[in-house]
Amino acid sequence: MRLDSEKITRIYNHIIDDSSKEIFEKRIIYGLTNGSISVMKDLASANKAVKEFFDWLENEGDIYIYGCGYRGKQLVSFYPEYNWRGFIDKAPKDGIILDLPVISTEEYFEKKCDSKIVISSRLYHKEMYETLVSGGVSEANIFNYGELLEKLLHDQYFDLEQLDLKEEYFVDLGCWDAFTDLELKRRIGDNLKHVLAFEPDYNQLDICKQNLAEHSINSTLIDKGAWSSETNLRFFVNGTMFTESSEGEFEIPVTTVDSIVGDDNVTYIKMDIEGSELEAIRGCEKIIKEQHPKLAICVYHKMEDVQEIPTLILDYYEGYDLYFRHYSPFDVETVMYAIPRKE
Fold first, then answer.
1. What are the structural domain ranges in the chain?
2. Would you say 320 and 341 are in contact if contact means Cβ atoms under 8 Å apart?
3. Cα separation of 44 and 306, whole Å?
4. Cβ neighbours of 230 (radius 10 Å)
5. What is the CA radius of gyration of the chain?
6. I need a labelling partner for 24 at 20 to 30 A (CA). Which of 11, 135, 148, 329 fits?
């Protein structure tokens, strides 16, 4: 990552609060250190709820991970300094994971251990919590990491007080399953006037349509990606991540937000599009310059995003105040908010 001191100074002068300055600085340092794990932890700790989780892990005592899925393995892999002693699973399929033993819940209960337990599943954390408590585990020895992840997921794009959500025309770039739109509907109800959602993955379109319809959200679903021009691009696809490349295996139609919106009055734009954010912003140039909508843009997919994305937005409209928030125990889910200054 190559820093431009003029860009950094300009961005910094538009950042309003100390929390945002801290996250911006740590994001820059993370890029300069080529993804240092210690810097990543400092970055993640800027989120108060994540910091409380790390503090809990640092207390004395052995720690077991309840659940053998990806999220628990991720914790052990990225943060080996904690006192991990094993995995607990209802029906273990493996005896060893990441050099740690795997035991059943029944075996753990029989041992009457006094260890700490991290619940690692986001989808089943409530049931897992009840299993542990009913099995005699003290609530003080349980950290519901799945509940933490759920909280972060719901907070992202909406917990900044300065958003001042009222009647909203919401543009969702990276709709996926319409979760963000449903969360906004939950928060402001009928004040959500319209959702313009972009989702180029044909496997997800029916899910988006169903979820939007079931929650009676007035919406328009665009089966294209957001970009700086109308064209077709090739992408590599890895799970939920699309990476643009001329050698990509999939061709995806893309278009500009400006060309779709027309004369509609947009109030809020969210972008989480796997590294295509900068090009998509170029495709929002007219809207940003003329309407100054609120913006929530992911700035973590590429190291340079934290510098280049705010710079481009300020090029289009200098009257934005900038805020940064982080929503993960790892290096992902850093969001930059741009809020137009009140005249």
1. 5-32+158-340, 50-151
2. yes
3. 15
4. 12
5. 22
6. 148
Amino acid at 85: R
Instruction: Give the burial class of 127: count Cβ atoms within 10 A of its Cβ; 0-12 exposed, 13-18 middle, 19 or more buried.
Output: exposed
Q: Which tens digit of pLDDT belongs to each residue from 263-319?
A: 899 999 999 998 999 999 999 999 999 999 999 999 999 999 999 999 999 999 999
pLDDT single digits (tens) 176-188: 999 999 999 999 9
CATH architecture of 5-32+158-340: 3-Layer(aba) Sandwich (3.40)
- Alpha-carbon gap, residue 271 to 336, rounded angstroms: 10
For the beta carbon of residue 80, count every other beta carbon within 10 angstroms: 11
* 276 phi, psi to nearest 5 deg: -95, 10
Contacts of 148 (CB under 8 A, 6+ apart): 49, 50, 53, 329
The CATH code for residues 50-151 is 3.40.50.720
Structure tokens at 257: 């937000």
Beta bridge partners of 250: 235
Residue 262 CB-density burial (10 A; 0-12 exposed, 13-18 middle, 19+ buried): exposed
pTM above 0.85, yes or no: yes
Answer for the pair 98, 76: CB distance below 8 angstroms, yes or no: yes
Give 227-269 as a DSSP string: -SSSEEEEEEEETTEEEE-TT-SEEEEEE-HHHHHTT----EE
3-state SS of 72-111?
A: HHHHHHHCCCCCEEEEEECCCCCCEECCEEEEEHHHHHHH
Evaluate whether 5-32+158-340 and 50-151 have a shared fold.
yes
